[in-house]
Amino acid sequence: MIRGLWDRETVAMMLLIAIFPVVALWVMAEGLEAVARLLFFLVVAGVWHVIWMLARAQPPSIAGAMTAICLAMLAPRELGLVALLLSTSFGVVMAELAFGGWGRNVLNPATVTLAFMGFGYPVAPWPDLAVQLGWAAAPAALIGMATGVIAAPLVVSTVLALAVGAVLGVDYAETGTAVAVVLVLLVCDPVASAATRLGRWLNGALFGALAAAFTAHWSGAAPVQAMVSAALLASLAAPLLDELSIALWVRRRRKRFG
Amino acid sequence: MAADPRLRSALIAPLVAKNPITLQILGICSALAVTTSLDTALTMAVSLTVVLVLSSLIVSTIRRHIPGTIRLIVQIVIVASLVIVIDQFLQAYFFDISQRLSVFVALITTNCLVLGRTESFARSNPPLASMADALGNGLGYSLVLVTIGAIRELFGTGTLLGLQVFETVDQGGWFTPLSLMLLAPSAFFLLGGLVWAVRSLLPEQAEARETTPPEVEEARP
What pLDDT shows up at residue A180? Predict the structure, then answer.
């Protein structure tokens, strides 16, 4: 995707700019500890990107910073150094670099890392997100949609699905913040989400429906854990939804033009 | 053994160079299912090797008498009979492990590895060569199973064969058990990583590319 100014790194930069409101409020809420965590994940992800550049001549991407931000914000607390290194390396290498780098991966490396931490170390407590992060997700989504790096159908259909849930009586008082932050940081990743128009609508609706269902029926799960699981499932379904949308399009074309 | 180099290579080649699991991706269903701990992996590996060697011997001995049209049925009957014997033996002497292996010993009957070796090798080779080939393949399978079983048990619980190797945090040590290792996906990850590692070390095992990228000429010399 190189069209004038728009190459892979521009998209990554735009994403970083878009999520800036969330990051800024997060650093303000958690202070120096947040910066230290972010630095740790930046170094781990960065080292892997450099190793793959040297070993496979894969250009490192600024998207590694995006992964580090997601992890610093959402990873379970009180994990040991070995656990953090192991799961971050797994996510960054297996979900992103092994596929050929950012842009060719199927799943978001941060989502995979968080799922790995959740399954691997189920007792580690998930973070509580400050409420203002949830509100900061709104300007983040707006900046992303305005610059074109976040697909509007994804966000709109998620909100619609959540609204349907609310009408059916789901109360988002506890999970609302996590839904908003996970939506902006993980689900709207332009690489790991669906890429066709119908696929995007379905992908967002699926995430919204899963988020509503987990809110209502998954008792005992931390909000972040439930929403990361929803993001993982929605992102796993994204290629299928794209396939579906393309198949429908081909059928429609065939009907119309024979 | 050393007398005949062909027997020797039939025995050694399947260990790494022609490993049934990492190269041919055969028999991975059981390799994924029974490797949560080392003792089940070992039991499964021994059972499969015994069944493979004995069925190769029998099929190879009567290879001139098996009608070609029903050869698969004959082979499956032989394999299934041996599997029943092994299953009964495990239930008699290793009841606990047999319970944990549940259906997977019985499923050796349908293991692609067993039928693959009897069909492709034992059916057209003399008994001794067939047994060497079967033993080699059984050991190659065992090697992978034991490796993955050991990794999963060690990092999943900190033990090996039930003996504590790493002191876990609950016992006052340093090791945090990685519960993911006890779940099925970890076997996929480990097997995939193993295949990746083997093919990086032995590039001739890698499959040919499905498509070749076009040669782009340099714009300027």
Answer: 94
CB contact (8 A) between residue A80 and residue B176: yes
Q: Of A151, A121, A130, A171, give the one whose Cα is nearest residue A24.
A: A130
Which value does ipTM take for this structure? 0.76
Amino acid at B44: M
User: CB burial class (10 A; 0-12, 13-18, 19+) of residue B139?
Assistant: middle
Tell me how many domains chain B contains: 1
- Paired with B175 in beta bridges are B168
Q: Which residues of B touch A82 (CB under 8 A)?
A: 176
Shared-domain flag, residues A169 and A234: yes
Encoded tokens for A6: 């728009």
Assigned token pair, A186: 């993980």
Read off the pLDDT of residues B90-113 as tens digits, 9 standing for 90 and up: 999 999 888 888 788 888 888 888
**Distance of alpha carbon A65 from alpha carbon A107, whole angstroms:** 16
Is residue A57 domain-shared with residue A157, that is, in the same domain? no
**CB-based contact A191:A105 (threshold 8 Å):** yes
Asked if A121 is an interface residue toward chain B (Cβ–Cβ < 8 A), one would say yes
Q: Are residue A138 and residue A104 in the same domain, yes or no?
A: no
